[in-house]
TrEMBL record:
Protein name: N-acetyl-gamma-glutamyl-phosphate reductase
NCBIfam families attached to this UniProt entry: argC (TIGR01850)
Cross-referenced CDD domains: AGPR_1_C, AGPR_1_N
UniProt pathway: Amino-acid biosynthesis; L-arginine biosynthesis; N(2)-acetyl-L-ornithine from L-glutamate: step 3/4
Subcellular location: Cytoplasm
Organism: Massilia hydrophila
């Protein structure tokens, strides 16, 4: 059994990790931390876990994480970088759901996250945890930088077209919407019910930290410098993310060949569903599951390709993706413990 520790067990991605890992056949939940809830049985806070998780939260300074085989950090930016060096030195693998190790350029990280990086020596070693694009590196990694939720949709949507050299890389547009759980469980005015329900708005239009993350990864995977305009929106739903991606074709290609390109790219990826050309994927078709669904469109047969991508921000956009990485790191089938079907309605 893989002994798992979770730092940040009281947040949304933390409890989502618990939901997935409590029934994972190869995992033994070993330590779950909370600074505020030391000693509280996990199932007292989350009754959905009654009967499946019998551990109590322990404060991060008391939890012996060095006895774990892997530790997930479901914490704000800056926490994993403080603890990863000691854990790695003790032979513990680390999966960070925050952004501490996502950007290879330290100055770019510090500019966007406004904190100094305290473990720069680990940045190069960290492997970006997007299995569909770098399974082999993940399998060999000790330290995973789990992608942001929006970047997962943008990368899986744009990469096939960029790799095939079919689109103008200098002008990619991503119009994305997230459910409110994307902002986490902490109290904030913008996520109060009376602020975010029955309301719809864009944010971060002038610049969002997921733009440098996505641009850097797209450049890394495709060898092309990209120009990306990314606009996130907050939609009045709890879970779910919808990305509408636009790219201009630079070569003649018919719809069937475009579709075939995506089907071929993701033929070995169990968690990417390439829907029939012209489909309209719905966020609820991914709710609670690790599946990302996408569909291609070509309005009026013109030279703009529209890629619609949906996922559950807490599963494929965060905790499910992290478990997918863990499976690869421990030589398991990538889908172990991740076969949940989306909840409808
Ligand atoms: N929500 C989402 O859809 C996604 C989130 N992410 C990223 O995942 C990470 C977690 O997000 P999310 O679960 O939404 O956040 P939440 O705000 O819901 O939870 C944060 C958790 O971290 C703990 N925590 C906070 N500060 C510290 C600290 N200094 N040391 C130890 N523990 C701490 C909190 O617990 P306590 O106060 O009890 O200690 C809490 O359990 C973030 O970096 C986020 O950006 C990534 C992709 C998607
Ligand atoms: C709706 C909402 O607020 N979403 C978050 C992104 C969540 C995420 O992916 O987080 P990290 O990259 O920070 O890990 C945001 O836009 O800041």
């Amino acid at each position: 059994m893989i002994k798992v520790g979770i730092v940040g067990g009281t947040g949304y991605t933390g409890v989502e990790l618990l939901r997935l890992l409590a029934v994972h056949p190869d995992v033994q939940l070993t330590a779950i931390t909370s600074r505020k809830e030391d000693g509280l049985p996990v199932a007292d806070m989350f009754p959905s876990l009654r009967g499946v998780v019998d551990l109590a939260f322990s404060s991060p300074d008391k939890a012996d994480l060095s006895q774990c085989d892997v530790v997930f950090f479901a914490t704000p930016h800056g926490v994993a970088m403080a603890q990863a060096p000691a854990l790695l030195a003790a032979g513990v693998k680390v999966i960070d759901l925050a952004a501490d190790f996502r950007l290879k350029d330290q100055a770019t990280f510090e500019k966007w996250y406004k904190i100094p990086h305290t473990a720069p020596e680990l940045i190069e070693e960290a492997v970006y945890g997007l299995p569909e694009l770098n399974r082999e590196d993940i399998a060999k990694a000790r330290l995973i930088a789990n992608p942001g939720c929006y970047p997962t949709t943008m990368q899986l949507g744009f990469v096939p077209l960029l790799k095939a050299g079919l689109i103008d890389a200098s002008h990619l547009i991503a119009d994305c919407k997230s459910g409110v759980s994307g902002a986490g469980r902490k109290a904030e005015i913008g996520t109060l019910f009376s602020e975010s329900s029955d309301n719809f708005k864009a944010y971060g239009v002038h610049g969002h930290r997921h733009t440098p993350e996505t641009s850097a990864q797209l450049a890394r995977y495709t060898g092309q410098k990209v120009g990306l305009i990314f606009t996130p929106h907050l939609v009045p739903m709890i879970r779910g993310m919808h990305a509408t991606l636009y790219a201009r074709l630079t070569q003649a290609i018919d719809d069937a060949a475009l579709q075939a390109l995506f089907e071929e790219t993701y033929k070995d990826s169990q968690f990417v569903d390439v829907m029939p050309f012209g489909s309209h994927p719905e966020t609820r078709s991914t709710r609670g599951s690790n599946m990302l669904r996408l569909a291609l469109h070509r309005p009026e047969g013109g030279d703009t390709v529209v890629i619609l991508v949906v996922q559950d921000n807490l599963v494929k956009g965060a905790s499910g993706q992290a478990v997918q990485c863990m499976n690869l790191m421990f030589g398991l089938d990538e889908a172990t413990g991740l076969k949940q079907i989306a909840l409808l309605p």
